[in-house]
Design a protein that fits this description.
Keywords: Lyase, Metal-binding, Zinc. Helix content is 13%, strand content 35%. The chain is built from two helices and ten strands.
């Protein structure tokens, strides 16, 4: 499945995604939960970016249609992050003991830029964000 099929009252929302090289593919079915940006030090260090854009989905709605990610214990026994062992793309996160929800990076979805249901509703861990981030935002808001 390579396109997003959004519900229009006729069925559930289905989104597809994968890694950069295409080895990992998946679909998630159901509504988006807690679309947010995380600026914690772990997300920043792992991604090489000042923040990451996360989405929650019901684990029951996740189906790996290609290879499954390689999992790295970011916090052993607490949280694991999934990535492609071939191209390095970051895909997902899961908390041990929580089989109900999986975190999917929005950028792993095929149509993240055009799906309005994915717009972040909050910024988590702002206190850990790169200090220049707030300055950048203020500078560009004043110029716009």
């Amino acid at each position: 499945m390579s396109e997003t099929v959004a519900a229009t009252g006729s069925g559930p929302e289905v989104r597809s995604g994968g890694c950069l090289c295409g080895k990992i593919r998946f679909t998630v079915t159901g509504p988006v939960d807690d679309p947010h940006i995380c600026a914690c030090k772990d997300c920043s260090k792992r991604s090489g970016a000042p923040f990451q854009w996360w989405l929650g989905f019901a684990m029951a709605g996740l189906k790996w249609t290609g290879a499954e990610p390689t999992w790295f214990d970011t916090h052993p026994g607490k949280t694991a992050r999934g990535f492609c062992g071939a191209c390095g793309s970051h895909i997902a996160a899961r908390d041990y003991g929580d089989g109900m929800v999986i975190g999917i990076l929005a950028t792993a979805l095929d149509h993240c830029a055009t799906d309005l249901a994915l717009v972040p509703t909050n910024l988590n861990r702002l206190a850990e964000a790169a200090p220049w981030l707030a300055q950048y935002d203020n500078r560009h808001a004043a110029a716009g």
